[in-house]
Amino acid sequence: MNTADAVIDKSASYTLLSNGYVVDGSGNKGFKGNVLLKDGIIQEISEREIVVEGKEIDCEGKVIAPGFIDIHSHNDWFFPSDQQEQFIDPFIRQGITTFITGNCGFSAAGFKKGTQYMDKIKGNVFKAGNIDFKWSSMSEYFDYLEHKKIIANIAMMVGHGTTRTSVRGYDADAMQPKEMDEILYLLDEAMEQGAAGVSFGLQYEPGIFASQDEILQIAGLVKRRNKIITVHARALSALSGTYPIRPFGTPHNIIALQELLNIARKTGVRLQFSHLIFVGEKTWKTYERCFKMIEDAIDDGVDIMFDTYAYSCGASIITVILPEWFMAKVPEVYDDSKALKKLRFEISLIEKFLGFGFKDIQITYANHPKLNNYNGRFIHDIAEERGLTPIENYLDFVKKSGGEARVLQYRYSNQQIVEALMRHPASLFMTDAWIETTGVQNPSCFGCYPRFLQLAREKSILSLEESVHKMTGASADRVGIKDRGRLKKGWAADVTVFDWHSIKDNTSVNQTDKAPDGIEHVFINGVHVLKEGKMTNNKAGKVIKIV
User: How far apart are CA 164 and CA 191, in angstroms?
Assistant: First the structure.
């Protein structure tokens, strides 16, 4: 910070953000001042007047902050699209300038060249991007984006699930040594080429089939690279299909968290617990226990943090609640009366002892012409209309959609837990969202970051500076981004200007796709991409390789 008057070369072309409240992303107290941008770089930050010729934006009464970073995104599946603006613009309208992608085991690159399982890689929940894969490796993907030009910044994890699928599909049998060697080679290659680390989706195919030894080997590899693992745990609820159903045993989300803490302890790897949520009312009482486990691990030297969103609902695919033993036998299991009887029993126990059921699952896109008229409806209500039991109705949607129907699931938490997650010192902010071309949208695509700021302001959960730090500097530090996340001279000019007093989320259960209030200007690499709330659609984004 320069406290003297700054006189800048008048022959150059600059953008001056003047008279704003500068919150630099470090967590330190802000100050009234000016920020000067040129050639994609922050040229000067000063409390005193900056004298310069160029464009000036008066930010009186507004906050000048680093561009927000979404630490858990899936937009790697949408940046290559010819309609990338459709998919990315709503996030930029939230003030987001950088996306950490490739999460939950799914990445759009880092797979075996010429794999026979390309249909499975393409056919996942993110297929709305409708991308034409002209790459396989991480470097080829990055080269493609750089040539195409993108409208925001992207960094990327390599997905264990994608890589594993490319080697052996969804085979649930024990991994063969040669297969494991090939997976390790591909993951290592992706990190060498700039991936920030490896992501796991242990509640999805094929991550659900991964053994402890497999995960430990990969975590050890990531540790040697000094990178990070992000993990969608095997269970995020007190009862799940991932483990044997014992209604009065240890809550499954506790078991799943302990598994990951053990892996981090054994390998020393940096662990980012993806979207820490507590699905079902009976799970809510475990959140303080989970916090205690995380805090004790941190005290023991384990490098763990978690990310959270500002809502108590989240998007997923319809099969996410199905147990491993059932998924391993798809599709034949749909005609196995004994297996279906067992499944009905397990799900009935989950509904009874978890406080989460089909009344909490909203179909956002049914992925079948005879069922798409039910988009936006809840499974329990649809069942009544169709004259089916909820489980019969659910399985019909699973079968007819090929397991790919999209859902929003509710009762992931309550307001008390959302606020506790925001407040926790180990939390970072994210959206975990993607735009769909059809059906009901996830509100996180449109209002998540404004909602964080709105909640912080209205409920005094965090200070302005603490809130901005979690969504900027702290997130950049976590994944190893060196020149973004802070307003600092010489760093990349990613900047978001917003009104702290009026910023708010405008989404609701009935209108999940409404733009927020309060985000006024966004600069990406110095380019003015959002001007007084209106997109300019300049393709100013960059690929960020973590080396």
Answer: 15
